Amino acid sequence: MRILLVGHTGTIGQIVCRGLLNSQDEIITASRTSGDYRIDITKPKIISSLFEKVGKVDSIVVTTGVVDMSVLSELTPEKNSVSLENKVAGQTNIALIGQHYLMPGGSITLTTGVIHDEFIKGGVSASMANGAITSFVEAASYELEDGKRINAVSAYPLKNSWGNYAPYFRGFLPVDSDFVYAQYEKSIYGIMTGHIFKAYH
Ligand SMILES: NC(=O)c1ccc[n+]([C@@H]2O[C@H](COP(=O)([O-])OP(=O)(O)OC[C@H]3O[C@@H](n4cnc5c(N)ncnc54)[C@H](OP(=O)(O)O)[C@@H]3O)[C@@H](O)[C@H]2O)c1
Asked: What is the Cα–Cα distance from 48 to 174, expressed in whole angstroms?
């Protein structure tokens, strides 16, 4: 299989990249600053040009998406637009353009997060972004053709990220990398579509 991984240098991206490199598959990496290709997920023209260079793939995995974590009283339209333009538009841009470069039976895997289901202080904008990705995945799965699939992985904060996330996520038990990777593996190699694989219990 040819698998395009966008965001391979991030906390989740590194975990997915490490896991996939243990497979027999060809892994093509892309991020803003390194990898086989440079990409900016907020720029559709750059995404199209990347897919033109990469060609057809069997799987597209996106593990990037910046969100704003302001408390509601300090959340402005400008700050909120970071989540909309980066995480929502960025991930869906890849799916919208990437569907045309996906082999029949191929899959797209996006990344969302638990604060679609459980809410935290400062998480309004991120919850909105995660909810949008969830609905996009569920709806798009009905329209994808040629057996193509689309899913998302939703994680609790990872143990690797706990230093940054702990103040926001009181009461959450951070999850192991292996458990998170397993959800991506299910999405990439499994048969389900329109599904949110939850990396939490
Ligand atoms: N970490 C967690 O515990 C956790 C838990 C649940 C959900 N999530 C969600 O998972 C996603 C990834 O989180 P993370 O913690 O792994 O992020 P991260 O460590 O900040 O990594 C971000 C990755 O995205 C790339 N990137 C950033 N902006 C980009 C752009 N405009 N175009 C292309 N690539 C870009 C970065 O590339 P460069 O290095 O080249 O800049 C890097 O590879 C986020 O949406 C986050 O909300 C994270």
From this structure: 36
In the chain, the percentage of residues whose pLDDT exceeds 90 is: 100
158 CB near ligand 1 (under 6 Å): yes
Helix orientation angle between 44-54 and 89-98, rounded to the nearest 10 degrees: 40
Name the residue range of residue 126's domain: 2-199
- Taking the centre of ligand 1 as the mean of its atom positions, its distance from the CA of residue 6, in whole angstroms, is 9
**Which CATH number does the domain housing residue 15 bear?**
3.40.50.720
Task: State the closest ligand 1 atom to the C-alpha of 35, by its place in the atom list counted from 1.
Answer: 40
Q: How far is the CA of 172 from the centre of ligand 1 (A)?
A: 20
Count the domains in the chain.
Answer: 1
Q: What is the pLDDT of residues 107-148, one digit of tens each?
A: 999 999 999 999 999 999 999 999 999 999 999 999 999 999
Mean pLDDT of the chain: 97
Contact 113 CB / ligand 1 (< 6 Å):
yes
Distance, in Å, from the CA atom of 142 to the CA atom of 137, rounded to the nearest integer, reads 9
